[in-house]
Write a structure and sequence with these properties.
This protein is mostly helical. It has one domain (about 20-155). It is about 70% helix and about 0% strand. The chain is built from 6 helices and no strands. The longest helix has 28 residues, at about 20-50. It is globular.
Length: about 160
């Protein structure tokens, strides 16, 4: 029987078997860097759009806190990954909120979830999926204008 050769890009796809310490470290550093970049970019964008600077600072402080927790070496790796994952999804939620619920901003979630899957652990991924469900389900019902901007979703979130 002939073994099939994996294409070169397949090495980057999750296999569900966990990852080595070095691979996990590289992925965690990359995702931490992504959260870090979101902090000043989102802050400057929101202030430029005319939003209250102190309110905006308080919002991005959440991202900073999740990042600090995710980088704290004394915490077990799975919880550090979960914290950074929450930082990634929180940046999506904040982008949607401050954009006024524009549908295009929701696509940010579609980029962040596959990144979280690269941890290849159920806890960070499950928390991330739960975050999206909570954000769109609960927050979308309680305050639809902060999640959606089109009349149909506002009327029937």
């Amino acid at each position: 029987m002939v073994a099939l050769q994996e294409p070169g890009w397949a090495q980057f796809l999750p296999k569900g078997t966990g990852v080595s310490d070095s691979v996990w470290g590289r992925r965690h550093n990359t995702m931490s860097w992504i959260v870090l970049v979101h902090i000043p970019v989102l802050y400057v964008f929101w202030v430029f759009m005319g939003l209250e600077p102190l309110h905006t600072l308080a919002e991005v402080a959440i991202l900073a806190a999740l990042l600090v927790i995710g980088r704290f070496q004394a915490i077990p790796r799975v919880f550090r990954a979960t914290s950074v994952s929450l930082g990634l999804l929180s940046s999506s939620a904040l982008l949607v909120h401050f954009s006024g619920g524009y549908i295009e901003a929701h696509f940010h979630f579609f980029v962040m979830l596959p990144l979280v899957a690269l941890y290849q652990r159920w806890l960070p991924f499950g928390v991330a999926v739960g975050f999206v469900l909570f954000h769109h389900g609960v927050v979308g019902v309680l305050d639809p204008a902060s999640v959606y901007n089109h009349p149909s979703a506002l009327a029937h979130p």
